[in-house]
Design a protein that fits this description.
The protein is of the alpha+beta class and 735 residues long. 42% of the residues lie in helices and 14% in strands. The protein binds iron/sulfur cluster (2 copies). The site of one iron/sulfur cluster has 13 residues, from helix 27.
């Protein structure tokens, strides 16, 4: 094997510089702002030709109103907006998607188009076609529906459509990106709907509760009132006077002031769609009539008042919205109208001065299972000819009994849906990582038996390549690093990593492994492309193809090149993202692993060429090109322990491990060069094997310890035999 000592010392200074440089670069990258939308009004208008007219961009929310030339006074038909202005959620590559989204006044998606995206898998892998096809699926659906993505497994974990739920077909090999797209579409549309549409939108797009129309129990008015199924509140004259106190509207109610304790109003409110309430309050005939008149999605509320104050203004027209009443949910008014229905007062109720049924519009998609608020405006006037008007609101909250509804399951956050969809992968990979940790923590038993180690290692690498790489799409990539850079640069958190649970699990484990075992845990065991290189190299050895070596000086120089590539990529991500998108194609991971070699020929040629180079020069890509490997090597400097066992004889005089290490990761002086070590555990096996370890063989044959090495006075760093090892070497105890 090559002598790395001199080159390694020279390289150390470079790596130190790189390490500090990259830290500084990361801090620098964290400081800057996000992108804004890219279309002007004219470009939007080209997409929405007459008779649709595009209005000026709103100041309240970054959206353009769409109106019709044919009905200019009818108000906006809907709104169009760029998602990047409202929900700039970073994708896999760190840059947010920019989607052009149009919704109508009822919250239905009328158009969704991808304006810009930087996801590697769509840029030059699958192409943008599958993504455009995916976003077109939103059209016709309402943003109040629970929209989710089909998962790759189907079966029990497959979300099912129906009951207000919509399941869109995902895109194979791009599940993490697609979850980000879904989150982006819904978040942006909800932001506009909350600002501009008269919709009652709960905190999340949960399907509304559905009333149990079969559930009926005969109850009288008093029982319903006592159970809180009908709510009411009484205000005295004095309480109303107190509302106006301090204003010029005070002391204007002579009748009320003469009887402060007298009733100003007793206001009643109940939900009518539930048969128990509806039939008790309206009677069977009127209830049946009302239910026939309501459209799907409409809810009806029963209002009544007794006392001096009524519900309706003097000039109220039946079938319209009462001017002084406002029904709302989550602070959003519901534009409720009079149902224009005659019905009697309920038996056993107090005498009312007014009765009213308010029905909500169907498109408001109110959730009837949740609370509503009723406001009644109390108006006072001062003066005769041009009176000054004073207004105060009386407020009544009401939530119908939960038992009257079927409750659809609360939707999970989009990132949790992704985790749920991948739980079988996560469980299996988690078990594999736990097993690998045990092996690396206590490698002796496995490593001592050469065949046992080989079976385990090849089995694990096959799992890494086939399951982690090709199946679970868990190939970590430099794109995640450049993506993190861009995300930080945009002043956003790294929350988008949550959408790719398999990668996140591997990233977390790799970060942890830096502190314990160093660089080789990922590169030696968990990198699918690294595993593919191992198998190609193994096949080459079986075919008796001889390995070649570059001159050591050239090799050492070339090894520094990957740090330059890493720095260049990070800088490009910061300063020239377009270049960064192209440069990351240096990695053959997308071609070989993500897309399983299903790609155009230049990419195939590059990936296959690297694998062929690996036949002659072991791990050629890892050692000379891989920018991710460079970053991981720098991370491996956080290692706290020299955990690979060594003896005093290692390197002087024994050269067994130095010459046997496939990766050239043992220096002539016996030190482990952890930055080159792929943790194959061969040297651990040799160390413990009385048939392969020269000092053990010598002692077995002669009964004496190996001749004492001529050590320099200063201890060689990296060689730290334990007292037990030293004792074993002296022949006191078996090693
Ligand atoms: S150096 Fe790069 S390709 Fe090689 S194992 Fe590490 S991450 Fe994978
Ligand atoms: S033989 Fe080389 S690569 Fe394998 S564990 Fe030992 S030092 Fe690392």
């Amino acid at each position: 094997m090559r002598n790395r000592k001199t080159d390694s010392n020279k390289g150390k200074a470079v790596r130190d510089w790189c390490y500090n440089g990259f830290l500084a670069l990361f801090l620098l990258l964290a400081l800057s702002g996000a992108r804004a939308g890219e279309l002007g009004k004219a470009e939007i208008a080209r997409r929405f030709p007459p008779p649709v007219q595009v209005g000026d961009k709103l100041t309240t929310v970054p959206a353009w109103p769409l109106t019709s030339e044919l009905t200019p006074d009818a108000g906006p038909l809907g709104y169009v907006f760029e998602s990047i202005d409202l929900a700039p959620i970073p994708g896999f590559e760190g840059t947010p998607f920019n989607l052009l989204i149009a919704i109508d006044a009822r919250g239905n998606f009328t158009a969704v188009e991808v304006l810009r995206q930087h996801e590697p898998v769509f840029l030059s892998g699958l192409g943008e076609g599958p993504l455009q096809a995916f976003v077109r699926q939103y059209e016709g659906h309402n943003l109040k529906q629970a929209i989710s993505i089909s998962n790759p497994y189907g079966g029990r974990h497959q979300p099912t459509a129906g009951g207000g739920r919509v399941v869109l077909d995902g895109v194979t090999k791009a599940t993490a990106s697609i979850h980000v797209v879904n989150q982006t579409v819904l978040s942006a549309a909800l932001a506009v709907a909350r600002a501009q549409l008269d919709l009652a939108i709960p905190g999340r797009t949960a399907p509304a509760a559905q009333v149990r129309s079969e559930l009926f129990a005969a109850k009288d008015f008093a029982a319903l009132l006592q159970a809180g199924e009908i709510v009411h509140q009484r205000w005295s004259n004095a309480e109303i006077e107190a509302l106006f106190a301090g204003s010029d509207g005070a002391a204007l109610d002579a009748v009320g002031n003469a009887d402060p304790a007298g009733e100003f109003i007793d206001l009643y409110l109940a939900y009518l769609n539930a048969p128990t309430l509806g039939r008790a309050l309206l009677g069977d005939a009127a209830y049946g009539d009302l239910m026939r008149r309501l459209e799907p999605g409409q809810s009806a509320y029963w209002l009544a008042a007794s006392g001096r104050q009524g519900l309706l203004e003097a000039d109220f027209v039946r079938g319209t919205t009462p001017a002084r009443l406002t029904l709302s949910q989550d602070g959003a008014p519901l534009e409720a109208r009079d149902a224009d229905l005659d019905f009697p007062p309920p038996p056993g109720a107090p005498p009312f001065n007014s009765l009213l049924i308010l029905k909500t519009p169907a498109f408001a998609a109110l959730d009837p299972g949740r609370g509503v608020n009723l406001k009644l405006e109390v108006v006072r006037e001062k003066g005769q000819v041009y009176p000054t008007v004073f207004r105060q609101n009386l407020s009544l909250d009401y939530t119908p009994p939960a038992g009257y509804f079927i409750w659809p399951p609360t939707p999970l956050p989009e990132w949790l849906v992704a985790w749920q969809a991948h739980w079988p992968d996560l469980a299996l990979i988690g078990v594999a990582l736990a097993g690998l940790s045990v092996v690396l923590w206590r490698p002796r038993w496995l490593a001592m038996e050469r065949r046992r180690l080989q079976i385990f290692r090849l089995g694990f690498l096959a799992f890494t390549l086939v399951f982690i790489g090709w199946h679970a799409q868990g190939q970590l990539s430099i794109v995640q690093l450049t993506g993190a850079v861009k995300t930080l640069r945009a002043g956003q958190g790294l929350g988008s990593f949550l959408f790719d649970p398999v990668s996140l699990l591997l990233i977390a484990f790799t970060l942890l492994s830096f502190f314990i075992w160093g660089r080789g845990t990922f590169c030696g065991w968990l990198c699918p492309f690294g595993a593919l290189q191992e198998f190609v190299g193994l096949a080459a050895r079986r075919l008796k193809i001889r390995k070649r070596h570059l001159p050591p000086r050239l090799e050492a120089r070339l090894e520094q090149g990957r740090y330059a590539l890493l720095g260049g990529l990070l800088l490009a991500a910061l300063l020239a993202p377009h270049w960064a998108e192209k440069l990351v194609e240096l990695e053959p991971f997308k071609t070989a692993i993500t897309l399983g070699f299903d790609r155009s020929w230049p990419y195939l040629a590059w990936a296959i060429g690297l694998l062929l180079l690996n036949v002659f020069y072991s791990k050629f890509f890892c050692r000379f090109i891989c920018p991710l490997g460079a970053a991981i090597t720098l991370g491996g400097r956080l290692r706290r322990w020299d955990w690979l066992v060594r003896r005093e004889e290692c390197g002087q005089p024994c050269q067994t491990c130095h010459s046997r290490c496939e990766y050239g990761a043992i220096a002539r002086d016996g030190r482990i060069l952890y930055e080159h070590c792929f943790q194959c555990l061969d040297c651990v096996g040799i160390y413990h094997d009385a048939q392969r370890c020269a000092p053990l063989i010598f002692r077995a044959r002669t009964g004496r310890a190996f001749p004492a090495p001529h050590r320099p006075a200063k201890a060689t760093p990296g060689i730290r035999p334990t007292s037990a090892q030293s004792a074993a070497l002296r022949g006191d105890t078996p090693p």
